[in-house]
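Posting for a labmate who doesn't have an account.
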Amino acid sequence: MEQVKDLRNCLQKGNTPYRGRAILERFDLSVDDLVMGVQCAKCLQYPMVRKRDHWSCLRCGFKSGDAHLAALRDYQLLISNEISNHEFRKFTGMNSRKVAWKLLSEVCLQHSGQTKDRKYMLDFL
């Protein structure tokens, strides 16, 4: 029973909130050092481009309706737990504010702020 208590205490001490920037700081990197864009799940190349209702790989032609989810997970793990429309477009290489708003609204159930100050909470992992 004593070992179980020790294990519990050890797990509680190690259970700290994740800080995404810690990885960048640990390896002395900045956000500008990251490869931007949506990665193709088939050939692993960057970037995929947004076409109407799907992402399309420029190299192999693979199509995906939800390839942006992996990019959002990467953003969450490396940068922050919240993202603005502008940051999402910059990170994925998109141009359309409206499409970015639609994709973020579908995925992120919570947000803070209004219009230009809006941040979407990346809590879907």
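Reply:
Got it, the structure tokens are right above this. The longest helix spans residues 2-14.
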